[in-house]
Design brief:
Blueprint: H1 2-8, H2 15-24, E1 47-49, H3 59-64, E2 74-78, E3 84-88, H4 96-106, E4 113-114, H5 128-137, H6 149-152, E5 155-159, H7 179-191, E6 201-208, E7 212-216, E8 228-234, E9 236-241, E10 251-255, E11 260-263, E12 272-278, H8 287-290, H9 309-319, E13 322-329, H10 364-369, E14 377-378
Antiparallel strand pairs: 1-2, 2-3, 3-11, 4-5, 5-6, 6-13, 7-12, 7-14, 8-11, 8-13, 9-10, 9-12
Length: about 375
């Protein structure tokens, strides 16, 4: 990445944007040789083992949410990025299907909010899963003539619902945060040294192979001292992690199914983006092979449950061409509350942070007119 970055930033312009466009390019495709792949564990002067706290999460508690013993996690940090932790698939074999099903079937239910609510009636988006099951579970191959609601899904918000127009959260737009996802986030953060993490807001992004996530910083939360978590399921992605300004060239890494990222400390407010979704390498995700089986010694107390064959048929069909990303945040610090008169304070780059629109953008000039929707998915190619 160093050689590539050096060749792109000599002019002193927006280094992040140049590398973003490079990895997004389709013809000719970019060279991925500089992309870090944590799943391979290759030695690098950039990669160092992350220090975890196995005593913070017992093996029983980890297994409840489908995680391996913390002692077995393969966690890494990056030189020059203090507070950034990458955990290479810490999930137990057989537990990822549960979380995929939650993202597609459970978290899409009302009262949670999704992009389809912007132009459809509540009754039409009441049961996204139920209205999509028949088409997604059909055995015939090939491209479906009509897109299901799941196919058209781009984002879902949980807890404090992020307002894409004001780029803020508010006390009066809140629904209960899912208890299972809260517990998963609590265990991950505890193992990383953050005690008492309170998951208050979540954004789920649903990517297709032509999707990307624009350059942005997550700073709408009122408390930046708490970490940001990111979970990846399904197909793989190229993730770019930059610096505090866009002139800092980003480093590129793969995110495979099951991978978890924690952004905290000085890395909490770094620019980042996803320029490209790519096919998961063979053997990198065992989702297809895992099926519905789940062996848990704590069946009575386990949050993770076996997925029925009927449900998995739908989930498996969906993730063959899709990636689901879940970001979890703590919005308020201890004793903190929303101001009476909120003011927008998110750093934005209207020209570069690409927001999701249902219709494709008409060129880069159109993208520059968009508001910079933090963590929204854009399916347009620019």
């Amino acid at each position: 990445m160093a050689k590539m970055a050096a060749s792109l930033v000599e002019s002193g312009d927006d280094a992040f944007r140049k590398i973003f466009k490079l990895y997004k390019r389709r013809n000719p495709p970019p060279d991925f040789c500089d992309v870090i792949d944590f799943s391979k564990g290759l030695p690098s002067d950039k990669i160092v083992p992350a220090i975890l706290d196995p005593s913070a999460v017992s093996d029983v508690e980890a297994a409840r949410v489908g995680l391996q013993s913390v002692r077995d996690w393969r966690a890494f940090s990056l030189q020059g990025y203090p507070g950034f932790i990458f955990i290479s698939n810490p999930f137990l074999l057989g537990s990822q299907p549960f979380w995929v099903r939650q993202c597609l079937k459970t978290y899409t239910q009302k009262p949670n909010v999704c992009n389809l609510d912007m132009h459809m009636s509540p009754s039409d988006t009441q049961d996204i899963w139920g209205k999509s099951v028949h088409s997604l579970s059909s055995s015939h191959s090939g491209k479906r003539e009509t897109k299901t609601l799941l196919d058209r899904l781009r984002w879902v918000t949980l807890g404090y619902h992020y307002n894409w127009n004001t780029k803020m959260y508010s006390a009066n737009h809140y629904t209960p945060f899912p208890a299972d996802l809260h517990l998963l986030s609590f265990q991950i953060t505890a193992a990383c040294g953050f005690q008492g993490f309170n998951a208050e807001a979540g954004i789920l992004n649903y990517y297709r192979f032509d999707s990307s996530l624009g350059i942005h910083v997550d700073e709408s939360e009122l408390d930046h001292s708490r970490p940001l978590l990111s979970f990846s399921f399904g197909q793989s992605a190229i993730f770019l992690l930059g610096g505090l300004c866009r002139q800092d060239p980003p480093i590129a890494m793969y995110m495979h199914s099951g991978d978890v990222m924690v952004m905290s400390g000085q890395s909490r407010l770094l620019y980042h983006a996803v320029p490209r979704i790519i096919s998961a390498p063979q053997g990198c995700t065992a989702l297809e092979m895992e099926g519905c089986s789940l062996a848990s010694p704590q069946q009575g107390r386990s949050v993770v449950e076996p997925v029925s064959e009927k449900d998995w048929a739908v989930c498996s069909r969906y993730i063959q061409s899709s990636r689901v990303n879940v970001t979890v945040r703590q919005v308020l610090g201890p004793g903190q509350s929303f101001p009476d008169t909120p003011s927008a304070h998110q750093r934005t780059d209207a020209g570069q942070t690409v927001g999701y629109h249902d219709r494709a953008a008409d060129g880069e000039s159109e993208n520059r007119k968009r508001s910079s929707s933090c963590d929204s998915v854009d399916t347009a190619e620019t």
